[in-house]
Amino acid sequence: MKDRLLLVFSLLFLVTAGLGLLFFRCRPSPDFEALRREILDLHRKTIDAHWKKDAGHFAAHMADGYFAVQKGEIRRPTRQEIAAEYQRYLATTTFTEYRDLEEPLIGFSKDGSVAWSVVRVKVAGSERAASGAEKGFDLTWAWITLYERKDGRWTWLGEASTFKPAD
Hints:
Blueprint (H helix, E strand, L loop, with lengths): L1 H25 L5 H21 L2 H6 L1 E9 L2 E3 L3 H13 L1 E8 L4 E4 L5 E15 L5 E17 L2 E13 L2
């Protein structure tokens, strides 16, 4: 009797595990092309936010715990700090150029809940110092942004960036 009960429980476990595995494997995979278009659209809106001087765009897309890797440092600015930084930056900067130098590279986790983009852009213009003096710049920026999709919306988990003067 004991052996029969063990056999029944073993079979029940195998059937349950098999059905669970079958169900898991039959889940539809994400539409990665649609997700790619969403990330690309967010990237393009971010470039547009520079032209429109929309500081709120940046803070609105940041996840709680957002991080930034720049100049050999890791920062964890709050949304308020990001909004204030972009407000100051955009108020004193005039762009003459802000464009992709190549198509962004975009990738995803297997379930489509995490994404990343690798971009390279040309940025040129001038920045006004506190004294009122204008100083020109002509840079190539590259960065990696990590995204997380929650409730049908992408948020920025963090980014790492670097730049160099134009050749």
